[in-house]
Amino acid sequence: MSADVLKNVTAADVPLPRQRSLRSFLAIPQGGFGVGLLLLLLALVVVGPFIAPDSPNEISDQPILGPSAQHWLGTDSYGRDILSRVLHGGASVILLPLLAVSAAMVVATLVGLVAGYLGGKVDAVVTWVINIALAIPSYLAVLVVVAAFGGGGAVVVTAVAVVYAPYITRVIRSATQAIAPREFVLAARARGESLGWILFREITPNIGPTLLVEIALRFTYAIMFIASLSFLGLGVQPPSANWGVMVAQNRALLLVSPVGVLVPALLIGVLAIAVNLIADALTQFFGDRIHERLMV
Amino acid sequence: MTTTQTARTDGDLAAEGLSVGYRARGGLTQVLADVTVTLHSGQILGLAGESGSGKSTLALSLLGYRVSGQETLAGRVAFDGRDLDGASIKELRKVWGARLAYLPQDTATSLNPALTIRRHFVEGLRRHRGLDTAAAVARSAEWLARVEIPEPETALHKYPHQFSGGQQQRIALALALSVEPEVLILDEPTTGLDVVTQAHVNRLIVTLARDAGIAALYVSHNLALLATVCDELAIMYAGQIVEQGIAAQVYAAPRHPYTAALIGAVPTIASDRPLHGIPGIPRPSVPVHTCGFAQRCTFRTDACETDIPLVALADDRAARCIRLDELPTFDPSAEHTTAVVVDRATAAKDLDAILTVDNVGVVFARPGSGEPFVAVDDVSVRVPAGRALGIAGESGSGKSTLLRAIAGLVRPSSGTISYRGAALASTAGERPVALRRAIQIVFQNPDATLNPRHTVYQSLERPLKLFRPDIAKRDRRDAVAAMMRQVRLAPDLLDRYPRNLSGGQRQRVAIGRALLAEPEVLLCDEVTSALDVSVQASILELLVGLQAERELTVVFVTHDLGVLRAVADEAIILQNGAIREAGPTTRLLREPTHPYTKELIAAVPDPDRAAEFLSGGS
């Protein structure tokens, strides 16, 4: 071997990886703004219960009082302090969608990976099921489930997870199909790697960006969806403090005391916008990275 | 032809001392330095260089085309007494298409998939030549006939996707020439096409451009092709022209060490000249106070650390080197003494076959149509142990499918593949570990061959974990580092991700990954086709060396007959999935018997047989 003909390539000849940090994510306007908003809301939800002047269901004063020094946002038709209920009512607004989306994500990722990688009959069956599921309107499906099993957090979370899973499965499946024929996957097959290794070690890390963006986007939808269900009386049940329930209950007083509706409605909106901005920033963040990888 | 071109007075387009830079993120990166080229009417100037040498930037700058952030730092582009690099977009629009035509590599960017061929032609002819529709249509049909598109009248009403890649590129050529431009800029116009199609398109380009008296610039990485089809040749390196002159002379007797090294890296079917890579990696930026090639040059001295001027020589030659008088004469056709010499004296048929392919067919079902697609058609071949078998053919010939069937990635529809006399299971998953270890495969695409989310070490450790229980866990890192040195990479790259490596470096890692399994048979699927010619030469050199050292059996798939000659002892030529010819590589290339082999050989550009190539082979 003529070793002298070829020079060894050393690390000095190779450009250093460009650092992709949280800071560069926050530098994207949507990222910084979205994360800022979300942190503010999380602070409100976490600290809220401790600084609330009253407990959420305590009848503390006359009903239907306007904003005053004692009750900043007034009281509702039962005489409960609205500010206290707002401070307590955020946890379920964030937590329930998070649970629903996580559950849908786990199932969808597994099914999507297997269908996308194996193809053939498995894929045909999965696609068929997805298409049928997507043809059923989301609200209708959840209405039927709630009618059958009664309302409440657990039922709503399960129903929303079931309704969202096909959408996510479809995204994961097509992302998997894009990765599966690539040569590093072929190399793994030629080595005789197990199905688990190929799906979770070779493919999953490469669909990570798609996965993250999809989680963020679905989370936004789920927040609005579950808040709407609570508003309709199908989700979180009164007397629980929940922003969606509050909008529904204080709706009758809209003309007398609008803050009782506006503040929780606004908070739901801001939460959805914050998560949506983060999803948008994630798309840009990973879009850049994908671009960079192709440019090399 | 028509009268417009005879009235031409000054069709010359020239870059004079042109320096161009890109401004991005507050910094300025210079990409062209002091480039002077002139395109003469009726002549073709070839511009050769590796990726990143600035050749495409020069081609676009000559058109006055500027991307955002691009700045002319010095010099100018002169056309017909005007400065193109300072011209307004309004002035440029009058010149583009009408007087300066551009033919890019990819027809997907030059033909609009939503418009018929007729619309493409009529638009340009009406705008630039003032023809009415009827005259424009007549002219279009005439040009389609000239680029040998069958049934030109019918073709006008078709859409681009209804034509093959080669036909699309010919249509794009006709489109560019139909407005009778004075200058034609060709940027790798045939790179994506099959060899036979490439030769056809190149013949047309040369004939038509010369007939029309066009001043053409032909940009390509393929030095042999440029030396065959061009009048003049300019070699670019790191944004500078390092050598320039009459094409045949530059190719036959290069003066600049880089030109000589580049020619030495080009695989050829004509001789047994071994390939040589160029050590090091190309310089990413324009040199300042030094010779651009100094880092990789065998003839470098301390005196090279200065700004090197382009030295004019006899016969319109020029070279950018200060040691021109002292350097030895480069003779690219000479044998090199330091080369790897593999003893191939033993006749292949006397050796035991390690791998036997018997009547193998691969058929794919085509969804939507009843007719299945036959990718591999009844192929039988035996691979002697320790030898290299080459499989050559055009795209769609089934060569990669055959290789993947051997690797257990594609299930054959018929026939058997045996390893040391025992039939192999049809998928890798069904084969015992020992057989999966023994047969390893390396893929074509350096961007996809390594998992982008695994570090180099993670990719290389895997085969050890699966196939080498003899190496203890704590010794794996040492074994991997040793392999890195064998494929000429420094072990400190182990914790990098593939995106930080160049294409050639990634291919080396991929070869290392295959070799760590200690295979008996190494399957190589077009492993160098995506690489620059100097990198290709180093990879082939590495493979040939490793094959000899480890007594490996290699099956090498390639579309390039020059590469075939460089690596393979025995070869088979595939067409439409079937073997057309088989035999020892040198004999196959010297005395082909099958008409298809002859056609393939005639399509390989060879500067020594330029006239033959341009007239359409034998």
UniProtKB/TrEMBL annotation, chain A:
<feature type="transmembrane region" description="Helical">
    <location>
        <begin position="125"/>
        <end position="148"/>
    </location>
</feature>
<dbReference type="Pfam" id="PF00528">
    <property type="entry name" value="BPD_transp_1"/>
</dbReference>
<feature type="transmembrane region" description="Helical">
    <location>
        <begin position="252"/>
        <end position="279"/>
    </location>
</feature>
<dbReference type="InterPro" id="IPR000515">
    <property type="entry name" value="MetI-like"/>
</dbReference>
<keyword id="KW-0812">Transmembrane</keyword>
<dbReference type="InterPro" id="IPR035906">
    <property type="entry name" value="MetI-like_sf"/>
</dbReference>
<dbReference type="InterPro" id="IPR050366">
    <property type="entry name" value="BP-dependent_transpt_permease"/>
</dbReference>
<keyword id="KW-1003">Cell membrane</keyword>
<protein>
    <submittedName>
        <fullName>ABC transporter permease</fullName>
    </submittedName>
</protein>
<comment type="similarity">
    <text>Belongs to the binding-protein-dependent transport system permease family.</text>
</comment>
<feature type="transmembrane region" description="Helical">
    <location>
        <begin position="154"/>
        <end position="172"/>
    </location>
</feature>
<feature type="transmembrane region" description="Helical">
    <location>
        <begin position="211"/>
        <end position="232"/>
    </location>
</feature>
<keyword id="KW-1133">Transmembrane helix</keyword>
<keyword id="KW-0813">Transport</keyword>
<keyword id="KW-0472">Membrane</keyword>
<feature type="transmembrane region" description="Helical">
    <location>
        <begin position="94"/>
        <end position="118"/>
    </location>
</feature>
<feature type="transmembrane region" description="Helical">
    <location>
        <begin position="25"/>
        <end position="52"/>
    </location>
</feature>
<feature type="domain" description="ABC transmembrane type-1">
    <location>
        <begin position="94"/>
        <end position="279"/>
    </location>
</feature>
UniProtKB/TrEMBL annotation, chain B:
<dbReference type="Pfam" id="PF08352">
    <property type="entry name" value="oligo_HPY"/>
</dbReference>
<dbReference type="Pfam" id="PF00005">
    <property type="entry name" value="ABC_tran"/>
</dbReference>
<dbReference type="InterPro" id="IPR050319">
    <property type="entry name" value="ABC_transp_ATP-bind"/>
</dbReference>
<dbReference type="InterPro" id="IPR003593">
    <property type="entry name" value="AAA+_ATPase"/>
</dbReference>
<dbReference type="InterPro" id="IPR003439">
    <property type="entry name" value="ABC_transporter-like_ATP-bd"/>
</dbReference>
<keyword id="KW-0547">Nucleotide-binding</keyword>
<keyword id="KW-0067">ATP-binding</keyword>
<dbReference type="InterPro" id="IPR017871">
    <property type="entry name" value="ABC_transporter-like_CS"/>
</dbReference>
<protein>
    <submittedName>
        <fullName>ABC transporter ATP-binding protein</fullName>
    </submittedName>
</protein>
<dbReference type="GO" id="GO:0005524">
    <property type="term" value="F:ATP binding"/>
</dbReference>
<comment type="similarity">
    <text>Belongs to the ABC transporter superfamily.</text>
</comment>
<feature type="domain" description="ABC transporter">
    <location>
        <begin position="355"/>
        <end position="601"/>
    </location>
</feature>
<dbReference type="InterPro" id="IPR013563">
    <property type="entry name" value="Oligopep_ABC_C"/>
</dbReference>
<feature type="domain" description="ABC transporter">
    <location>
        <begin position="13"/>
        <end position="263"/>
    </location>
</feature>
<keyword id="KW-0813">Transport</keyword>
<dbReference type="InterPro" id="IPR027417">
    <property type="entry name" value="P-loop_NTPase"/>
</dbReference>
